[in-house]
Specification:
58% helix; 97 residues; single chain
């Protein structure tokens, strides 16, 4: 994750074949590696400490991410809005089809 001149941070999502990955079969290490790859290396340890696997990740609410992981508010908001929520949405869409 790179700091830009205006102080914002680049929050890239790893994309597979034009789609976000489906985390439903991820283990805890996969979740940790995903967040490390997206630039949240420091915060990724919170997912390991709380034993969040892919199924747990898909069940997380905004409040869970903001308060349950004991990470700073700024990164927590970005993690939820740019990663957890889109992964959940993609998972739901792929299971409906």
């Amino acid at each position: 994750m790179e700091d830009k001149a205006n102080g914002s941070v680049d929050t890239k999502s790893p994309v597979e074949n034009g789609q976000l990955p489906d985390p439903s079969n991820w283990g805890v290490a996969d979740v940790v590696n995903y967040f490390k790859a997206t630039g949240f290396e420091e915060q990724a340890t919170a997912f390991q400490d709380q034993e969040i696997d892919g199924k747990s990740l898909l069940l997380m609410t905004r409040n869970d991410v903001l308060t349950g992981l004991s990470i700073k508010l700024g990164p927590a908001l970005k993690i939820y809005e740019y990663h957890v929520k889109p992964l959940q949405t993609q998972h739901l869409k792929s299971n409906v089809s």
